């Protein structure tokens, strides 16, 4: 199976979690490509991937927001309409469910992607388990 992982690079921890997911998925003979928000491309084509994984961290204390760099990167992505998508969140201290719901609502409304699964991933160990489950 071919996976694309699109993630915000505002947090080095999120980059590490994304790489851990990719490494474990590759061990199961999946093809995985990483697209961090600092990627220098005008267009990111996701049409050739079976599934897209989108990762973010929790932003905001009471009101949860989508990181600006992730919003910008998702606007560059082509081929998300109707694509099976998995969302993961590196949670903050509180209101992780609200942050995850805000992220999923944004992705569905802005890109037309179909969210098939989601996860809250706090540690590298959890990221590896998530990667093995793909």
Give a summary of the structure in a few sentences.
The protein has 134 residues and is an alpha/beta fold. It is built from four helices and seven strands. The mean pLDDT is 89.
CATH homology group: Flavodoxin domain
Largest sheet, spatial ordering of strands: 2-1-4-6-7
Distance between the termini: 9 Å
Individual helix count: 4
CATH-derived topology? Rossmann fold
Computed CA radius of gyration, to the nearest angstrom: 13 Å
> How would the global form be characterised?
globular
Task: State the name of the first-level CATH class.
Answer: Alpha Beta
SSE class: alpha/beta
Task: Give the ordered list of helices and strands.
Answer: EHEEEHEEHEH
Helix content estimate: 25-40%
Tally of structural domains? 1
Number of E-state strands? 7
Main beta sheet: 5 strands, parallel
Contiguous uncertain segments of 5+ residues: none
Mean model confidence by pLDDT: 89
- Our estimate of the beta-strand percent is 25-35%
Architecture per CATH nomenclature, i.e. the level-2 architecture: 3-Layer(aba) Sandwich
